[in-house]
Amino acid sequence: MEEDEGSSKVETAKAERSVWLMKCPVVVAKSWQAHPSSDPNPLAKVVLSLDPLRPPDDPSSLQFTMEMATTEPGNMPKSYSLNMSKDIVPMSVFSETGHGKVAVEGKVEHKFDMKPNSESIEEYGKLCRERTNKSMIRNRQIQVINNDRGAHMRPLPGIIGLVSSTSKDKKKTQPVKQSDMKRTRRDRGELEDIMFKLFERQPNWALKQLVQETDQPAQFLKEILNELCVYNKRGANQGTYELKPEYKKSVEDTGAE
Fold first, then answer.
1. Checking DSSP bridges between strand 10-11 and strand 92-96, what pairing results, if any?
2. Which residues of the chain fall short of a pLDDT of 70?
3. pLDDT digits over 110-130, tens only?
4. Measured at the alpha carbon of residue 238, what is the angle toward residues 236 and 241, in degrees to the nearest 5?
5. Are 232 and 240 in contact (CB under 8 A)?
6. What is the pLDDT of residue 112?
7. pLDDT for position 7
8. In this predicted structure, what is the pLDDT of residue 3?
9. Cys-Cys link to 104, which of 15, 130, 246, 255 (CB 3.0-4.6 A)?
10. DSSP characters for the chain?
11. pTM for this model (two decimals)
């Protein structure tokens, strides 16, 4: 009983420590997760640039960039810009050990959105196309049936002709509507690549159209759209989504190739 009470306590010694929250692309997150914990080399380097000609309280006077230290194969960009935002909801970071011990690691002070630099847009576009092509490949599976005599496929004697002929049974089975079927979520990176392809086809999409095109749950699509797109509340394209400017440039460059 004493062990249960001790494990329910939360360590708060680092509760006031300043922590940065960063949202990074899927390819970067997978690269860092695959990095062995025994490797002492750093994952990346953050560079802070200060403009002495601007006032200190001007947000544009500070510029953060990140240089990847790992050498990943393929077209993974090596340089990223970190867009800082201070207008965030108060948040704290927690950790939990394998024994169930919970601790507060700090308080989020800054939030960063990690995006490829303009010089790396072409490389990132190639990477997106590669992931899209891979996601479109359907791997067929062959299953061997042990009972090759087909006993489970033949109707048993006496079964034929015993089906009831009541009016209820004569009614045709109603087809299941697409909206009633449970949609399975794709991998987040694959879905982002598919979305970029769709916005190459046309610049504006309604949520209902994207649900039909991707066959994904509407709520999951909204999460992706909130990150990649802007929602038009008025104007000629009211009620539709379009890519944010930074992603538009990537798609336009990709389409030009």
1. unpaired
2. 1-7, 59, 70-75, 86, 119-123, 139-141, 145-182, 249-257
3. 888 888 777 666 667 777 777
4. 115
5. yes
6. 85
7. 54
8. 45
9. 15
10. -HHHHHHT-EE-TTTTSEEEEEE--HHHHHHHHTS-TT--S-SEEEEEEE-TTS-TT-GGGEEEEEEE-S--SSS--SEEEEEEE------EEEEE-TT--EEEEEEEEEEEEEEE-GGGHHHHHHHHHHHHHHHH---------S-TT-TTTSPPTT-TT-S---HHHHSPPPPPPGGGSPPPPPPHHHHHHHHHHHHHH-S-B-HHHHHHHH---HHHHHHHHHHHEEE--SSTTTT-EEE-HHHHHHHHHHHH-
11. 0.41
Supply the angle between the helices 188-201 and 121-136 in degrees, to the nearest 10: 100
pLDDT at residue 154 in the model: 56
Tokens 């927690």 appear where?
A: 94
Token duo for residue 27: 């390819």
Quote the CA–CA distance of 62 and 54 in Å, as a whole number: 9
